[in-house]
Amino acid sequence: MSSLITRSWPNAVIYDLTHPSHTKITLPRGSTWSSGLHWHETHIEYLRVLKGSVRVRLGDTFSIISVSKAGDNKPVDVKVDQYQMHEWSRADLDGEEVVVVERTDPVDGE
User: Do 89 and 59 touch, CB atoms closer than 8 A?
Assistant: First the structure.
């Protein structure tokens, strides 16, 4: 079984399941993919934005989270508390490729 799951356009996404402790999610330019509004009853979720910009909804608050383009390209982390309604997607359909790592505490194994 492959460690990569790929979904085609218009909601193109690549899920990299190589590591049991986290999932790397890649959204190509133009993808309309969204995590969908959801919550977790058994764990806290962390999003680490490695590349590009994402639109994150936490409850009723919306934010744009971007990796710095000031030359340091430091990842940006977002904590999603247990039971918190949340959703994320590309911030800009025409922007660069987006890469986000999702992990949970405790590790949920899904």
Answer: no
